[in-house]
Design goal:
2 domains, M1 Pyruvate Kinase, Domain 3, 19 strands, 5-stranded antiparallel beta sheet, mainly beta, 268 residues
Length: 268
């Protein structure tokens, strides 16, 4: 059975709920619209859902063509408007100093009120995406077979049931692969729709995966279950689950498009 794209998702605001798409444009930086914005606290340090679960309760809707952003909060309260930014400010992004423009308007006060913490919404720098690894990891992919294997491990540990793929915040899901077969694609080019990516390495997992993808509360021992059968996998990042890739050839990817692995990809 050949592999096909079974989901496409982006996070317009890093840490907030994922936005499901029927198609996406891949650029050299990654998926268009993904991690276009992120949040910093009062110390100008980037904040993610790992630390702040209530972020996941906020649903962002980015219209890149219109230049507008809408944030839907629990209770269907909406804050929306054009994306207008101020002068760049230095911020701490995983130890890197980036210069990001604060987004003006009511967005930051509304987010701060919901989370109970002073937060500022900023737009990613034009020369640097807000994806954790930068362009080398601008795209992420997870096989459905891997998700099913994790469900089996969780069931064996007394937590039966399906595991929502949104916990892992991956751009693409691949139907038709065996458990962790995507690992076999590391260092290979993969045709995906009109685009091509090079699978670079495995994605290590953090505590954000333990949070419910709608409510943001910790409700699953995700890391424990991954460790139970993946702890001996050799990986630069610990607790690997899924893979990340760089975009070799930009193009459009749609639901149902085939994923076709080829030979070794270009080295960066």
């Amino acid at each position: 059975m050949s592999a096909t794209v079974t989901w496409i998702s982006i996070a317009p605001v890093k840490g907030m709920r994922m936005q499901e798409l029927s198609e996406v444009e891949l650029t050299r930086q990654g998926a268009a619209g993904d991690r276009e914005f992120f949040l910093v606290d009062g110390k100008q340090t980037m904040i993610s859902a790992t630390r702040l679960g209530p972020l996941i309760e906020i649903t962002p809707d980015l219209d890149r063509e219109a230049g507008t952003l809408a944030l839907r909060f629990p209770g269907d309260r909406i804050t929306s408007g054009p994306v207008e930014t101020g002068p760049p400010e230095p911020v701490d992004f995983y130890g890197l100093t980036l210069h990001a423009r604060p987004v003006l308007g009511d967005f930051s006060p509304a987010i701060s009120e919901h989370c109970g913490l002073e937060l500022k919404l900023v737009a990613r720098p034009e020369n640097r995406s807000a994806v954790d690894r930068g362009p080398i990891g601008g795209v992420t992919l997870l096989g459905v077979g891997s998700l099913e294997r994790l469900e089996s491990a969780a069931g064996e540990a007394g937590e039966p049931g399906s595991i929502d793929q949104r916990r892992f915040r991956m751009n693409f899901g691949a139907e038709g692969l065996g458990p962790h077969e995507e690992d076999d694609w590391i260092d290979r080019q993969v045709e995906i729709g009109q685009a091509a990516v090079v699978i670079r390495d495995r994605v290590g997992r953090c505590a954000a995966t333990t949070r419910d993808p709608d409510r943001g509360v910790v409700d699953l021992k995700t890391l424990h279950h991954i460790r139970s059968y993946r702890d001996d996998v050799i990986s630069e990042e610990p607790l690997p689950f899924g893979v990340y890739a760089s975009v070799e050839r930009p193009g459009t990817v749609r639901l149902g498009d085939p994923l076709v692995p080829g030979g070794p990809g270009a080295r960066l």
